[in-house]
Amino acid sequence: MKGLFVALTCVASVVAVSALSACGGNDINAQTNPPRVIIDSDYNTLSDDGQLGVMAAQLQAQGSLKVLGITVVSGNQWLKQGVADALKSVERLGVENQIGVYAGANYALSHDFATIQAEQKQFPGGDGYLGAWNTPEPKSDSDLIAPPDGFATHTKVQGKSAVDFIVDSVKQYPGEVTILAIGPLTNIALATRQHPEIVPLIKQIIYMGGAIDVPGNTTPTAEFNWWFDPEAAKTVLRLPIKQVVIPLDVTDTVKMDKALYDRVAHDPSKQTIITQLFKTLNGYGFDGKNGFETNPNYTTNIWDTLTLAYLMHPSFATQTVDEWVDVDMSFGANDGKSTGYTSSPPAGLQKMTVVKRFDNPTFFNFYVDLLTRPVPVTLPN
């Protein structure tokens, strides 16, 4: 929660774009050649993945970002539920004709439930969050849970698979595609295994994943996204691609408190379906749920949206280190654990940027502004 002094002076700014400019952020106005991105996500309606979808759509509407598509993978929830939530998301935002939804991997490459159960029994700890494994796998549409405003009425999943879409997009725009990897890395691992020729054509991958020098969350040693499919994480991290990691090391320091929550949920001049869902589905312990009502110092972390913020404004990262990062995929207490090496790395690892601290006040302005803009978005001609 410690931003630079110059960033702290920007908290009072009401208009986020002005605040970003004044605080050293890059211009987020329309660009001649906006970054092209694929959002690879274990999507949900309006938790961190869904929030990133909203923010990306708003950036696309102002011409500063080009979202090629959303590729969905099992993680927070099963693939079928994630696809349904993503379809409704793009329809709700009014970008269903510009941003397609592509179904990807339903299971991790090798991390099955029997292994997870055995590890939990022998090595208990962590917060116990298992994502999709916490619920029965939906077998048909009748098993899906509708968002509060209902399922998508006319938006359909794309016929092309997520893996094929990643491959085709990278080949169509060589050297231009950034992948925001905010879920398990199964889709990316499959795409690069099946078509290794795309590896040198990917511009960069920005991850929310890993816990380098801090404890894990799902287990005492492992962060959820990389724990869910450690084989995929180990595979992708070793690819010779420019890579940036937003791990728990930084997300543990970017906290939502009651004041920030209220800026999104309770600004009477900026009420939309997004702010309503933010309150209805999350609450974050600030609206009638255990948390703030029993602890006035209660806070909660912000995760995936930091990847989009970093893409648009690398200057938001106030502390970074260059490390070689690896993931353990062996059975045991360290399954899914990430390790960063500052020197003498094991063979085959790639050096990458690991973000340690963020300019929180300026990021919060960026976050609130994009989540509270009018919807459906107004797309450029």
User: What shape does the CA trace take?
Assistant: globular
Radius of gyration: 20 Å
Series of H and E elements: HHEHEHEHHEHEHHEHEHHEHEEEH
Strand order of the largest sheet: 3-2-1-4-5-6-11-9-10
Q: Tell me the number of helical segments per DSSP (H or I, 4 or more residues long).
A: 14
CATH superfamily caption: Ribonucleoside hydrolase-like
Overall pLDDT confidence: 91
How many structural domains does the protein architecture include? 1
Helix content: 25-40%
The proportion of strand residues reads 15-25%
Say what the CATH topology is: Inosine-uridine Nucleoside N-ribohydrolase, Chain A
Q: Architecture, CATH level 2?
A: Alpha-Beta Complex
Distance between the termini: 40 Å
Helix and strand arrangement:
Elements: H1 5-8, H2 16-22, E1 36-41, H3 48-61, E2 66-72, H4 79-93, E3 100-103, H5 113-122, H6 162-172, E4 177-181, H7 186-194, E5 204-208, H8 224-228, H9 230-237, E6 243-246, H10 248-251, E7 255-256, H11 258-265, H12 273-282, E8 300-301, H13 305-312, E9 317-327, E10 338-341, E11 351-358, H14 360-371
Parallel strand pairs: 1-2, 1-4, 2-3, 4-5, 5-6, 6-11
Antiparallel strand pairs: 7-8, 9-10, 9-11
